[in-house]
Design goal:
alpha+beta; Conserved hypothetical protein from pyrococcus furiosus pfu- 392566-001, ParB domain; 6 strands; ParB_N; ParB/Sulfiredoxin_sf; ParB-like nuclease domain-containing protein
Length: 332
């Protein structure tokens, strides 16, 4: 299996020893629900197959069923294997947990969306919304909050070990969005999902009910850095000559190529290119924060990546030459 949950009907079911499986990378912040496990174990019904990542034997979806089977003292369980990487497996697990079984909480889904935005930033808001059961507006708010719109540090760690944002504006706006879409959600659930204090969530609710902005005037755009509104120098904006603009233009051009868009291998290539080139200069945001003892290691990684790109460029150039002159290719 290499696709989403819709592909499960075509995946064979296998019986495997329970002790051969690895605990899930669960999207549930609080882990499995013991009461739900007990009810499943006592139900006496046969469980549908669980979903397992083939390369690691890690459970993607079905930890409640697995633990219920253990309570029944069963030593084997039916599984369906998924052939994907860790991040794809996590996304598939989230999607599966919003369509059946014990539903993910609002906080679970918001945390999962935050993680997906981080590991798959090129996925559309609609795609992430579909996987997590949230609205596209909520995903946009989560993406804005998790991406750290300011160029500096977006949060600090206190003496108690808790991470606190320097600005609550993104969290307040996300909380307001969640309240609008989940009017029955508790303040605690909203605060946890939005990453703000319960008191802050209460203030947001009161402000919204009063017809005010969820963000007080003195907190709006508090995280704007000195360079947020810098106007590009003449000739830089919109001419496609800056490296970032050029890369995006090339990617958009490739994405419109029918030979890539309408083939599975072509779409895979496009996803790979977006993941590895869309923010190729993102290192500039972090380079001054790299600890000295990590600099040599990261420098080696950078040179290895540069060498890999150089090798790819050479390979493509040789292929182009051979296509233009087949005799030259045979001479090599």
């Amino acid at each position: 299996m290499t696709g989403g949950t819709d592909d499960l009907a075509r995946v064979p079911v296998e019986s495997v020893p329970i002790d051969s499986l690895v605990r899930a990378d669960s999207p549930r912040l609080d882990g499995e629900n013991d009461e739900h496990i007990r009810l499943l174990a006592e139900s006496g019904v046969a469980f549908p197959p669980i979903l397992v990542q083939k390369s690691t034997s890690r459970v993607i979806d079905g930890m409640h069923r697995l633990r219920a089977a253990e309570l029944r003292r069963e030593d084997r369980i039916d599984v369906q294997y998924y052939e994907g990487d860790d991040d794809s497996s996590f996304i598939l697990g989230v999607r599966a947990n919003i369509t059946h079984g014990l539903p993910l909480s609002l906080a679970d889904r918001a945390a999962a969306a935050t993680r997906i935005c981080a590991v798959r930033p090129y996925l559309s808001d609609r795609t992430i919304a579909s996987a997590t059961g949230l609205s596209t507006k909520t995903i946009r708010s989560i993406r804005a909050q998790s991406s750290g719109e300011n160029s500096g540090t977006a949060a600090r760690v206190g003496r108690d070990g808790r991470v606190r944002p320097l600005s609550t504006e993104p969290g307040r706006r996300l909380a307001a969005q969640l309240m609008a879409e989940n009017p029955d959600a508790s303040l605690r659930a909203i605060s946890r999902a939005a990453g703000i204090a319960v008191a802050t969530a209460r203030d947001v609710r009161e402000r919204v009910r009063a017809g005010l902005s969820p963000v007080p005037e003195n907190q709006r755009r508090a995280d704007r850095g000195p360079n947020r509104n810098v106007v590009p120098r003449a000739g830089e904006a919109g001419n496609g000559n800056s490296p970032e603009t050029g890369e995006l233009t090339i990617l958009r051009t490739l994405a419109r190529d029918p030979s890539l868009r309408f083939s599975e291998r072509g779409r895979a290539l496009l996803r790979w290119l977006v993941a590895h080139t869309a923010d190729v200069r993102g290192w500039k945001r972090f380079v001054n924060d790299i600890p000295p003892h990590c600099e040599d290691v990261l420098a080696r990684i950078s040179r290895m990546n540069a060498a890999a790109w150089h090798e790819l460029a050479g390979r493509l150039e040789r292929q182009r030459e051979e296509s233009a002159d087949p005799e030259a290719g045979r001479e090599r």
